[in-house]
Amino acid sequence: MKDEGIVKEFEDALSQLPEHIIYCILMKLPARDLHNKFRFICKSWYRTISSNKFISQNAINSKPELLIQVTCSRNTKLKRLVEVEEEENGFKLCEFDMKPVGRIRPGCHGLHFVNAMRALNPLTKFILALPRCPSYCPHEDYGSALGYDPTANQYKVVHVYNATFGFEKFDLGCSDVNGNGFVDHSKCMIGPILLIFLRVIQCR
Amino acid sequence: MAFTKKVTLKSSDGELFIIDRAVALQSRTIQYVLEDTNPVDAIIPVPAVDARTLSKVLEYCKKHLIDLNTDFEDYSKWDKDFVDAEVWMLYDLIMAADYLHIPPLIDLICDKIASMFKGQTPDKIREIFNIDNDFSKEEEEDFKKKSGWAFK
């Protein structure tokens, strides 16, 4: 069993590595793997990987894979995303696991705002679907923007739905100031935007 | 002339390596020794590294000596071949690079080891690093729900 021998050797060598070297290795891993797998190895790894310092170092050190936006077909405006993976010789194109989207808008801090109320981080390739609106807006025809509030360390989405002239504000989950644990603020608020619209109408 | 000066390194098993001072200076550990004591023709012991590993490390240092005639592309191919080695060799190399403090070499090997984790399951990773899973099922579910990390 040649394979087992290699694995055994691999384990023996790596289990002896000092902690700061393991830290360097983790830093090189793609963010998606860290998020889905390596974070849940044990609690100390979870703390390390979730710390703001690690995350910013990882963003610089890991090799990002490109995302390319491709039009689905000639007759639609819908676009899909394709991932470029580097291989031994050349590269490989993979379908990015996301429904076709209409438009990708830049938000802030490099985050992008995708159709149907999803926010995408193109570097780590995480997608966060926003909570369902209290207005039950189908998200087909709407205006929205993503912004960052540094005082509260929160990302906010303002969503204007034109059927009823209302707006909603969402707070996206993000780490607290110290980077210890995460607070999931996903509040929705309704507020009238009627006055602004009324003024526009009067100007005519 | 700093570039023509030679430095002698002695590995843990007693082998002597006579190299250019500029090559040795890529190791910060040796740089400190040279700056502090400035030994003339003295032998610098490297007690943590054996001859086989040291020669490999020095091979890297010689290659990476800033040379205006070699372009960047040249390095990446050479680096790739350099780390295409047995796991034990990589382990020895990274420990030597850590001891001698050569950050780019540590970086290179970490890259290589990280690439070996592609497609490994969490259980396998725990086995490799000899780590016990101290998450309970509920805790893991709870942590997985939190999506904060995506947005930093």
Give a quick summary of the entry.
The complex is a heterodimer of chains A (204) and B (152). Chain A is built from 6 helices and 13 strands. Chain A has helices spanning 2-14, 19-27, 31-36, 43-50, 52-61, 194-203; strands spanning 67-71, 79-86, 91-95, 104-106, 112-114, 118-121, 126-129, 143-149, 154-161, 166-172, 174-175, 182-183, 188-192.
Describe this entry's structure for a reader.
Chain A has 204 residues and is an alpha+beta fold. Mean pLDDT of chain A is 66; it is low at 173-204. Chain A has helices at residues 2-14, 19-27, 31-36, 43-50, 52-61, 194-203, and strands spanning 67-71, 79-86, 91-95, 104-106, 112-114, 118-121, 126-129, 143-149, 154-161, 166-172, 174-175, 182-183, 188-192. The relative contact order of chain A is 0.09. In chain A, the strands form four sheets. In chain A, strands 4-5-6-7 form a four-stranded antiparallel sheet, with no helix packed on it. By secondary structure, chain B is mainly α. Chain B is 54% helix and 9% strand. Chain B has eight helices and three strands, in the order ββααβαααααα. In chain B, strands 2-1-3 form a three-stranded mixed sheet. The relative contact order of chain B is 0.11. Classes of the chains: A alpha+beta (204), B mainly alpha (152). The interface between A and B is large, with 50 and 41 residues.
Which tags fit this structure?
heterodimer, A: 204 residues, alpha+beta, four-stranded antiparallel β-sheet, B: 152 residues, mainly alpha, elongated
Count of individual helical segments of chain B = 8
Could you state the oligomeric state of the chains shown? heterodimer
Specify Rg of chain B, calculated over alpha carbons: 20 Å
What would you call the shape of chain A? Answer: globular
Q: Low-confidence stretches of chain B at least 5 residues in length (pLDDT < 50)?
A: 147-152
The radius of gyration over CA of chain A amounts to: 22 Å
Structure summary, number of beta strands of chain A: 13
- Provide the β-strand percentage band of chain A: 25-35%
Strand content of chain B: 5-15%
User: What letter string, H or E per element, gives the SSE order of chain A?
Assistant: HHHHHEEEEEEEEEEEEEH
Largest sheet of chain B: 3 strands, mixed
Overall pLDDT confidence of chain A: 66
Classify the helix fraction of chain A into a percent range.
25-40%
Q: What is the percent of helical residues of chain B?
A: 40-55%
| Poorly predicted regions of chain A | 173-204
Helix/strand-derived category of chain A reads alpha+beta
Domain F-box (chain A): 11-58
Protein name (chain A): F-box domain-containing protein
Organism (chain A): Vitis rotundifolia
InterPro entries (chain A): F-box-like_dom_sf (IPR036047), F-box_dom (IPR001810)
